[in-house]
Write a structure and sequence with these properties.
Layout: E1 2-3, H1 8-19, E2 24-33, E3 43-47, E4 52-54, H2 61-75, E5 79-84, H3 86-89, E6 98-101, E7 109-117, E8 122-126, H4 130-141, E9 145-149, E10 163-167, H5 174-183, E11 188-191, H6 195-207, H7 212-215, E12 218-219, H8 231-247, E13 273-275, E14 282-284, E15 292-294, E16 297-299, H9 304-312, H10 314-319
Parallel strand pairs: 1-4, 5-6, 8-9, 8-10, 10-11, 11-12
Antiparallel strand pairs: 2-3, 2-7, 3-4, 5-7, 13-14, 15-16
Helix pairs in contact: 4-8, 5-6
């Protein structure tokens, strides 16, 4: 269901989502042919759980935008949609534009740009060494949101299910820091330590009753193996691994985990869809899409007009 916000309120909401680390798609009407209900410059936010806030058009446009926004968020690739009838555009369609036929009674048309908004990762480094500070500085130089915290500061106040946490205490309270970080359920958790030291820390936490499913989420040792390096160069190795994982898509789902906090991002809800047998538009298979049962099959429509046409002569459309 669409939210009542519009104009600057949509952008304000978008800022809130970015600051919370939530992924979403932003849809903007860049062209309109009357009498479409959408207006040039109208915007809407589509969240990963399938909610739409704002306004980009009526019942004809909204299901299509929701569907395409799902793909944009998943692929992280923007799309330019042209919504209207085939007769309106013919061959005069720019390359790269996705054309979706819309056969609404308004006979209007819309051009909508949908872009993914993927907040930069939030990196929390636990420790107080020059290496830890270097890691924070390097991540900030990449535009990542990063901060350095002490062991006793680790908690839900600064770590969420959207966070990447690197425990870099280097022997000064590794166990306590890692246990606190695990309890905060970050999306990614790494421990800077040798393999032997990392195994010992995990074994200690297992003896303390920390669930194996949580311990299995800990990456240790973390960082690309650069051979013999200085403490500050270890920071480069750690960040290099995180960048590599992100580029390979391994961190693409970093907001999603099995122990999400209240503000965690959820996978985009899959909404049942149907094809309007009259105009062949994709519509949501819900009570809002004028359902009509015929010979044991329920059909859905983009508007009351299409449903009326079907009711008057179901055989024409069923056979087609």
């Amino acid at each position: 269901m669409s939210g009542a916000m519009e104009g600057w309120a949509v952008l304000a909401r978008a800022t809130e989502l970015v600051e919370s680390g939530t992924e979403f798609a932003l849809a903007t009407v860049v062209w309109r042919q009357a009498p479409s209900s959408g207006h040039q410059g109208s915007r809407a936010i589509i969240t990963v759980d399938g909610k739409l806030f704002g306004w980009i058009g009526g019942a004809c446009a909204e299901p299509i935008v929701l569907r395409e926004a799902k793909n944009v968020i998943a692929d992280r690739t923007p799309k330019l949609l042209l919504l209207g009838s085939d007769e309106q555009f013919g061959s005069a369609v720019p390359e790269g534009m996705v054309v979706t036929p819309v056969s609404c009674q308004s006979e209007g048309a819309l051009e909508i740009y949908i872009e993914p908004v993927i907040p930069e990762p939030r990196l929390v480094v636990v420790g107080g060494s020059p290496m830890a500070q270097t890691l924070v500085d390097l991540a900030a130089a990449l535009g990542w949101r990063s901060e350095l915290v002490a062991v006793d500061e680790v908690g839900s106040a600064n770590v969420s299910s959207h966070s990447i946490v690197i425990v870099a205490t280097q022997g000064h309270g590794d166990e306590d820091a890692l246990e606190r970080a695990i309890s905060a359920t970050p999306a990614y958790l790494g421990l800077v330590a040798s393999r032997k030291r990392g195994e010992a820390v995990l074994a200690y936490l297992a003896d303390r009753g920390v669930a194996r499913t949580l311990l299995d989420r800990v990456h240790t040792p973390v960082g690309i193996d650069l051979g013999h390096t200085t403490h500050r160069e270890i920071a480069v190795a750690v960040l290099a691994e995180l960048v590599q994982r992100r580029a390979a898509g391994e961190l693409s789902d970093w907001p999603h985990n099995d122990h999400a906090q209240e503000n965690a991002t959820l996978p985009l809800a899959t909404q049942a869809e149907a094809i309007d047998p009259v105009c062949h538009m994709t519509v949501s298979a819900t009570a809002s899409s004028y359902p009509f049962e015929h010979q044991g099959t329920t059909y859905y429509f983009c508007c009351a007009g299409c449903r009326t046409k079907f009711e008057n002569d179901p055989a024409e459309y069923v056979e087609a």
